[in-house]
Design brief:
By secondary structure, the chain is of the alpha/beta class. It folds into two domains: about 5-155, VC0802-like (2-Layer Sandwich); about 175-340, Rossmann fold (3-Layer(aba) Sandwich), CATH 3.40.50. About 30% of the residues lie in helices and about 25% in strands. The protein has helices spanning about 15-20, 75-90, 110-125, 175-185, 200-210, 225-235, 275-290, 305-315; strands at about 5-10, 30, 40-45, 60-65, 100-105, 125-130, 135-140, 150-155, 190-195, 215-220, 245, 260-265, 295-305, 320-325, 335-340. It has an eight-stranded mixed sheet with strand order 2-3-1-4-8-7-5-6, covered by helices on one side. A seven-stranded mixed sheet has the order 11-10-9-12-13-15-14, sandwiched between helices. α2 packs across α3 (about 110-125) and α4 (about 175-185) crosses α5 (about 200-210). The N and C termini lie far apart (about 60 Å). It binds S-adenosylmethionine. Pfam families: UPF0020. GO terms for molecular function: tRNA (guanine) methyltransferase activity. Keywords: Methyltransferase, Transferase.
Amino acid sequence: MPYHLEVVVAAGLESLAREEIQRLGRGARLAPGQTPGVLTVHYDGPLQRLFTLRLATSVYLVKHFPIPRPRALLGDQHLRTAVGLAETALNLHPRGSFQTLYLSAAGAESSVLARLKDELSGSLGLQRGQDDGDLLLRLRRGTGGQGWDLLVRLTPRPLATRAWRVCNREGALNGPVAHAMALLTRPAPDDLYLNLGCGSGTLLIERLQLGRAQRAIGCDINSEALACTRTNLEAAGLSDRCEITPWDARKLPLPDGSVDVITADLPFGHLVGSHNENLDLYPALLQEAARVARPHARCALLSHEVRLMERLLATMTTWRLIENLRVDLGGLYPRIFLLRRTNQRV
Ligand SMILES: C[S@@+](CC[C@H](N)C(=O)[O-])C[C@H]1O[C@@H](n2cnc3c(N)ncnc32)[C@H](O)[C@@H]1O
């Protein structure tokens, strides 16, 4: 029997995530689904392979219980099935990886669900977490209101949590979104790759994990950001594969037409920068990026300044808009602007 899985992704990344799941091979079959940010997969390969998914936020194992109410889960047979489901996740990791259990459900504080949490945590030898848990369970109504589904996250942390992120910064980009931006720029080994405003290094690291670049450069005007990038690159084992520089993205010491790929997670003006600063920064940065980009260079820029970006791009002949992808970053909906350098002069 194949496993029934739900792969959770940032809404907007579904089609890229579908391709990534298809690359797992014939053992992974995608079911049609309409819920944004959720891909249903029937899978009969080794579950650990799913941990290689870079676009997924989390992967859940799903079990349907044809029961009228959650109380029935306390019955011996259903409880054993639920414990077995949880053990499938636990057994994928070294002993001790999971310490706490958390059950997310409507009415999670009801006496029935409190008992269910006690039974499960007792059987599995885990503490009950307060707001979160290593072993994350979700209980919800089944499709069409029929029965109930129990979901178990396969990993003690979301897959979106990157092991290399030892230095965090406010405004750091979500790993899967950075991975998507790297894929959209079609990485190639002979690229001169430039990441403007590298912050904590997310875009650089996600790009370099996809393969070598002839030269990779990250720049930022903030010295703490540069130190953070270096720390994370070190943790990712990628320090020797890129240059970290204190360049201002509006005035780059690079020759005209020399760069193949440019990426940036631009200050949105929420956590980093301000809208007024962006009114000056964005046109200057787009102009300078166009100067250093070679004709047909690829560029992926993430920004929540949608109107400003659209207005600027409408007036520029140096950049052609290829795609404008709206992504859900935890309730904020920035766009990935995928651009191609034209052969017009700056
Ligand atoms: C939204 S943050 C980038 C976050 C990064 N992607 C990460 O994951 O940590 C934007 C970055 O742009 C940098 N920045 C702002 N203006 C800049 C400029 N003119 N030149 C270079 N970097 C700049 C800021 O210092 C900040 O680190």
